């Protein structure tokens, strides 16, 4: 299998959206994480990542079994949910997976049709279309399963004008740290088990009408020790991009396997969030305690030979450990956090695109070697 970065088909896709685009998606609506302590997780994402308080549901809103905090930064909306009782599906999820992404909600104009079209094509239903209502209006939700125990929730909010969704109240909070310039979700990556990548690529193609953008095999993404394979799926308008990774044979245990071991199955590996000024964003995040992966300083010795001229000074990029890559449309700057929870599972990527629409292939080797050094320390390589 060769690496293909098919920019032609991407351009065509942009100009001529799939005629069979039976699942028009306006964008990511929210990402819901099941966490051990939602109140403290919300504090972390506000303080360290610059998210703002938006909405809340819990005992005060009549919710008996769970609590949810909704936080937002520009177009990125996270929902942090914890159980309030001792047994139940959220408890089971946290016990099995640790803190992690449960629902990737997609904003649609018609949640009923989205559910019908996808289940007709073989999606397994999580729940059928249902209308929820409060004094701010109504919304329609439906959901289907994707890899592992992760769901896609379709959110139709045309007739709703409240803080988040019916049932939630506005979360008024006196503690409001400044945003750090995160703007929208660029892509979200799923890790799946051995030989499962193509099954999920096919799911996104057949059930959701996505197209394949790029594929990387183990020759592209391998170091002396570990390897993985990846394919990137995109919806018709390009607003939703889901790379899917699977482990590949290497001398040692790949980071994907490590993830699968600790997450106990397939799940979301990283959420890539875009900024217009990565130097400013990462400077702020670092000062607020976010830990990032580090590539060796010699990465910068010849990086400009590889990527050519860039607008930024190299020095601050080097100081912050920001990585650079180029494709035939431009370049990109990116940096990866260490895992955000206790288990070596979910992490974030900060990305600034300057024309490039690829994913930083030129950085894979340096990056994976940095991850391997972390794995070594964890005894999981
Ligand atoms: Fe990424």
What this model shows, in words?
The strands form 2 sheets. The chain has a 9-stranded mixed β-sheet. 25% of the residues lie in helices and 34% in strands. A hairpin with an 8-residue loop joins strand 3 (52-57) and strand 4 (66-73). The protein has 2 domains: 20-170, 2,3-Dihydroxybiphenyl 1,2-Dioxygenase, domain 1 (Roll), CATH 3.10.180; 182-378, 2,3-Dihydroxybiphenyl 1,2-Dioxygenase, domain 1 (Roll). The chain has helices at residues 7-15, 38-49, 89-97, 111-120, 197-207, 255-263, 278-287, 303-307, 314-320, 364-378, and strands spanning 4-5, 27-34, 52-57, 66-73, 76-83, 100-107, 125-134, 137-145, 151-156, 169-170, 182-191, 211-216, 227-234, 241-248, 267-275, 323-327, 330-336, 347-354. The structure holds fe (ii) ion.
Beta content: 25-35%
The whole-angstrom Rg is 20 Å
Q: Identify the CATH homologous superfamily of the largest domain.
A: 2,3-Dihydroxybiphenyl 1,2-Dioxygenase, domain 1
Order of helices and strands: EHEHEEEHEHEEEEEHEEEHEHHHEEEH
Structural class: alpha+beta
Mean pLDDT: 91
In terms of topology, how is this protein built?
Layout: E1 4-5, H1 7-15, E2 27-34, H2 38-49, E3 52-57, E4 66-73, E5 76-83, H3 89-97, E6 100-107, H4 111-120, E7 125-134, E8 137-145, E9 151-156, E10 169-170, E11 182-191, H5 197-207, E12 211-216, E13 227-234, E14 241-248, H6 255-263, E15 267-275, H7 278-287, H8 303-307, H9 314-320, E16 323-327, E17 330-336, E18 347-354, H10 364-378
Parallel strand pairs: 2-5, 6-9, 11-14, 15-18
Antiparallel strand pairs: 1-12, 2-6, 3-4, 3-10, 4-5, 7-8, 8-9, 11-15, 12-13, 13-14, 16-17, 17-18
Bound molecules: fe (ii) ion.
Fe (ii) ion binds next to β11 and β15.
